[in-house]
Specification:
The complex is a heterodimer. By secondary structure, chain A is α/β, with parallel strands linked by helices. Chain A has one domain. In chain A, the strands form two sheets. A four-stranded parallel sheet of chain A has the order 2-1-3-4, with helices on both faces. In chain A, helix 3 crosses helix 5 and helix 8 crosses helix 15. Chain B has two domains: 91 residues, ATPase, nucleotide binding domain (Nucleotidyltransferase, domain 5); 143 residues, ATPase, nucleotide binding domain (Nucleotidyltransferase, domain 5). In chain B, the strands form two sheets. In chain B, strands 3-2-1-4-5 form a five-stranded mixed sheet. Chain B has a five-stranded mixed sheet with strand order 8-7-6-9-10. By secondary structure, chain B is an alpha/beta fold. Classes of the chains: A alpha/beta, B alpha/beta. At the A-B interface, strand 8 and helix 18 of A face strand 5, helix 2 and strand 8 of B. The complex binds iron/sulfur cluster. The site of iron/sulfur cluster has 12 residues of chain A, from helix 7.
Chain lengths: 415, 256
């Protein structure tokens, strides 16, 4: 038969611990809703989580829920409900799938965690527009629905060099969040606790970075698809000790893989870089396809988004401001191009896969000639896959498969 | 003893093509409708080509399957994408740096080859079928014209009707407006052809020598003429454009 042999995805042992960590996270939130305390803050994935945690809030990340809606493919059924109330199929499908799920009284949490029937209602919603404006609209919808306060930070866009002016602007907004948050929390911000949270968050970020950098080994012990799963603690648990313990164990496992010559993709022949959002509903299919093609997607802009080098416990507000402005997504195209060039070199990749996500222009970097410029300058080929993070109506399995296979055939010709 | 026969099968969205090579020489070609059963179409096409030269399946050394249905061919030695096969087939006819435009039933591809035949890059059309064979089929239906007659009809048009939209559905709505105004059919058919050409010109700057392949090109020479007019230079077409993918697959079968 012409079809490639079925291959098994090599799971990391740490996945078991991860499942437990996430279960604890969601049960703790669910319990807090039932008990009425601690207070719950919703936060965007690269929002000021450290501040919220330091003020005693339990933090819930709707984007994480969005990813679960995508991965479980429940999104396909919930997006149309949000479209029907006026949220266009062209806007963020995390937003539309999440709002649609709320309107349908559904959540993938119910299937994953027995006894949880709904997402945790917030006491406050806090966004940072560093990633996009959609998060603001998203949080505003819930704020209005449940009459809860929505606070936020308005970020700069297309930033070249991050200057003191940027930092001062954002730090000022972060500091301005404190009084209303204190009022909601019913307690004063303890500066020592904030420093400690920033310290833990920085350590988490450093460990996550080390985890991702193991993929520079040839063959790589880690794939992009693994990282989309194992990044969860860096998103939802940064600023906690359990996240550090988790990444130390994961790092040890990956280092052992390197020492033992264990490849994430057996007989790795080609190495690719993924730019853009994951296609959550097709993660497994794509991971399997690349395995069959003996091609390892070793690194990604997406998983790197939770590396915050600038966090500094001695200067919490300013360092948070810098860390959340230094992010790739906030930066100018020339910066992004340089960054990708660095990634190509660090991870010794043979080519790039750009995901043109229909509903997330913010995480899509192939619409202004970037792939062509990189090929022209560095001779690194790429493909652009049309798809979406959650809306599978914008995705063609067959066309994507053909493109990826053809790309790998092209890389093989070069060898 | 090694057999000298190799077979390429291109199971496309609408037609399945077979090319049989005797050493380096094309010995036979066959074409069947792909229908809803790709495996059956592949087998029927193979059997047709074999019967035409009096061979049996066991005489074939290697078979390479390509096209949409490539993974459905259980008797193939391997499968290779149509992008690689079209590139290989075209390069055999035009062994130099070329830009290939392949217009298929469901998608369009632009493939850039280096002097050596190595692929530099390729692009596929976006998700919509606008600009593909499926688009022309839709338009033929709307105009009540057999698909096979569309080319000649479009030739009679002068080109004074323009379709502006990207999307097949919008293009059909635009056509409706022109129909309501009593526009002659040849103008509408020509507008559809020009729309296909526009979709292609959007995909790539189409530098250098351009070669066009695929079933749509085989049956609609006007498309090639319009691309050539837009680029202001000659556009090349292999002798059997619809068989380019199958030919490339057969060449790969012979080489591997
Ligand atoms: S960055 Fe993209 S995926 Fe994330 S919330 Fe904004 S629009 Fe949605």
């Amino acid at each position: 038969m012409a079809e490639a042999k079925a291959v098994e995805i090599k799971k990391l042992a740490a996945a078991g611990t991860l499942r437990k960590l996430l279960a604890d996270h969601f049960y703790e939130l669910d319990q807090a809703v039932k008990a009425g305390h601690p207070k719950i803050a919703w936060c965007t994935s690269v929002g000021p989580a450290e501040l919220l945690r330091a003020m005693g809030f339990l933090v819930y990340f709707p984007e994480n829920h969005g990813a679960m809606l995508g991965a479980s493919r429940m999104a396909t059924e919930t997006i149309p409900t949000a479209n029907a109330i006026g949220y266009s199929p062209e806007v963020c499908s995390y937003l539309t799938s999440d709002i649609g799920a709320c309107l349908q009284n559904r959540t993938p949490l119910s299937a994953a965690y027995e006894g949880i029937t709904a997402i945790p209602k917030p006491d406050v919603l806090v966004y940072n527009t560093n990633q996009c404006r959609d998060v603001q609209d998203w949080f505003a919808w819930y704020g209005q629905r449940w009459s809860r306060p929505v606070l936020g930070v308005e970020c700069y866009r297309g930033v070249g060099e991050v200057t003191d002016v940027h930092v001062a602007g954002i730090a000022g907004q972060l500091e301005a969040l404190v009084p209303p948050l204190e009022e909601i929390a019913g307690a004063r911000l303890d500066p020592e606790r904030l420093r400690e949270t920033v310290r833990l968050s920085r350590q988490c970020s450093d460990l996550w970075k080390e985890v991702l950098e193991t993929a520079a080994a040839v063959p790589s012990p880690l794939t992009f698809f693994d990282s989309t799963i194992h990044m969860a603690p860096a998103v939802v648990l940064r600023g906690t000790q359990v996240a550090l313990d988790y990444y130390r164990a994961l790092l040890a496992e990956l280092k052992a893989r390197i020492a033992d010559g264990v490849a994430a993709v057996a007989n790795e022949q080609h190495r690719l870089y993924w730019d853009g959002m994951p296609i959550w509903g097709r993660l497994r299919d794509l991971a399997t396809l690349f395995l069959e093609l003996r091609t390892c997607v070793v690194a990604s802009t997406y998983a790197n988004s939770w590396i915050f080098n600038a966090l500094d416990p001695d200067d919490p507000f300013r360092s948070m401001a810098r860390a959340y402005t230094e992010l790739f997504i906030v930066r100018s195209d020339p910066y992004k191009e340089k960054y990708l060039e660095q990634m190509i070199a660090t991870f010794a990749v043979d080519g790039l896969v750009f995901h043109d996500a229909k509903t997330c222009p913010n995480n899509t970097n192939c619409r202004h000639g970037m792939p062509q410029r990189l090929q022209e300058r560095l001779g690194v080929p790429s493909i652009t896959i049309s798809g979406d993070l959650n809306d599978l109506r914008c995705y063609s399995d067959e066309q994507t498969r053909t493109q990826i296979e053809a790309f790998v055939e092209q890389l093989a010709e070069k060898r | 003893m090694t057999s000298r026969w190799s077979l390429g099968l291109d199971i496309g969205a609408s037609a399945t093509k077979a090319v049989l090579l005797d050493g380096e020489r094309v010995q036979a070609r066959a074409l069947c409708k792909s229908g809803a059963d790709f495996a059956a179409a592949a087998k029927a096409c193979r059997d047709e080509v074999l019967t035409s030269v009096g061979l049996a399946a066991c005489d074939i050394e290697r078979t390479v399957a390509t096209g949409y249905g490539r993974h459905r061919v259980d008797f193939a030695s391997t499968s290779v994408t149509e992008i690689t096969c079209h590139a290989r087939g075209c390069y055999a006819s035009f062994p130099r740096a070329i830009t290939i435009i392949d217009i298929g039933g469901q998608d369009n591809k632009v493939i850039l080859l280096e002097e050596t035949g190595a692929r530099r890059s390729f692009r596929m059309n976006r998700k919509c079928a606008a600009g593909t064979g499926a688009f022309l089929e839709e338009i033929a239906g709307q105009l009540g014209t057999p698909l096979a007659a569309l080319n000649e009809l479009a030739r009679q048009g002068t080109g004074n009707v323009e379709l502006g939209s990207f999307c097949t559905v919008f293009a059909k709505t635009e056509l409706l407006a022109w129909i309501a105004r009593g526009t002659p059919l040849p103008e509408l058919a020509r507008a559809a052809f020009r729309s296909v050409v526009k979709r292609i010109l959007e995909m790539d700057p189409l530098a250098g020598e351009v070669v066009m392949t695929g079933g749509v090109v085989a049956h609609n020479a006007l498309i090639v003429e319009l691309v050539s007019a837009a680029l202001r230079r000659e556009v090349f077409v292999p002798e059997y454009p619809q068989y380019t993918g199958a030919f490339g697959a057969a060449l790969i079968a012979r080489e591997t």
